[in-house]
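$ run holo --ligand "heme C" --emit tokens
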Amino acid sequence: MKLTRSLFVLITCIFFITSCYYDKEDLLYGNDNAPCTDTTGPISYSQKVVPVLQQFCYNCHTGNFPSGGIAMGTYTTDKVVAQNGKLYGSISYSAGFSPMPQGMPKLRKCQIEVIKKWVDAGMLNN
Ligand code: HEC
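-- output --
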């Protein structure tokens, strides 16, 4: 009898903890299972790529002493990082690259997809 009750309490606790975790994640990062409308059609550098980089990367990678010597923040510098494969390598957590953004959760699938499409389409300044 006692065992059944503590088991029930334990299961309820686990349920609360996990459901709370997912709720919070949804709120902060959005639902990764939601359809990715962002990635349809041609990807605009200024309208789709820059907002992501601005929110997650420019903090550390602009100015006179950008982190890791990786300068970003203008079309020219962003294109260099995209062209040498480091941009996609780092945000996709590929082997051989430091995972970025540093100290933050991985970008959402949509955001990674947007950047990949922009790179694959030739990194246009559009
Ligand atoms: C909190 C600061 C911080 C943020 C935010 C950040 N970076 Fe970094 N980044 C670093 C530091 C520090 C290094 C150098 C050390 C290392 O490679 O881990 C680095 C290194 C890199 C490198 C070189 C990795 C390699 O393996 O050669 C790339 C590319 C890069 N960052 C891209 C990005 C991108 C893209 C974002 C946004 C999605 C981002 N970073 C966000 C701090 C940051």
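-- notes --
Residues 56-57, 59-61, 67-68, 70, 81, 86-87, 90-91, 97-98, 100-103 surround heme C (CB under 6 Å).
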